[in-house]
Specification:
Layout lengths: L1 E5 L4 H10 L5 E5 L16 H16 L2 E11 L5 E2 L13 H11 L9 E11 L5 E12 L15 E3 L4 E2 L5 H7 L1 H13 L1
Parallel strand pairs: 1-2, 1-3
Antiparallel strand pairs: 3-4, 3-5, 5-6, 6-7, 7-8
Bound molecules: inosinic acid.
Length: 194
Amino acid sequence: MKKIIFATGNQGKMKEIREILADLDAEVLSLKDAGIEADIVEDGKTFEENAQIKAKAICEMTGEIVLADDSGLEIDYLNKEPGIYSARYMGEDTSYRIKNANLIRRLEGVPDEQRTARFVCAIAAAFPDGAVKTVRGTMEGRIGYEEKGENGFGYDPIFYLPEYGCTSAELSMEEKNKISHRGKALRAIKDELR
Ligand code: IMP
């Protein structure tokens, strides 16, 4: 059976990843499962660059096929902030209640049609022969006026999906996986791995 390492320490993500890659006939390991401790500096300028940096570094360390992702929220009115800094926005340890309240405040008085935003997820696959493939998935929406919903994480409670009439924090995990940036990118990278 093929072995694939997904360069994340996030168990929530691993669950989602294993579910979507289940039919690949490969053993999908997290960094922890693979016994790897690595602190890689993500100094890329794009989601794609950051995913590639992580995937290549772990691939060079292990000689295995390695997947890595980088994701975040782009708000058009704020020149695509927080973008690649989504996790670090206002500081890594600041709660999302505060980050979300701050973003809503920065959009005060901004009408619906200018509140467009998207979640982006880039996934890179690094192969032992040096090849690298990168894909991107997006989910389009708008920044809401208040936090809504208890599911998901991060910016989900302020990410309003007009077609569904709710935020991505009001969707079940299954519903979100079907339409999410990460779900789309995972299905696209799966095609590259076949
Ligand atoms: P990453 O784990 O380094 O890719 O960090 C991505 C950051 O983007 C997370 O910490 C969240 O702030 C944000 N983010 C990415 N995907 C989502 C999502 O599906 N819902 C809410 N926030 C997300």
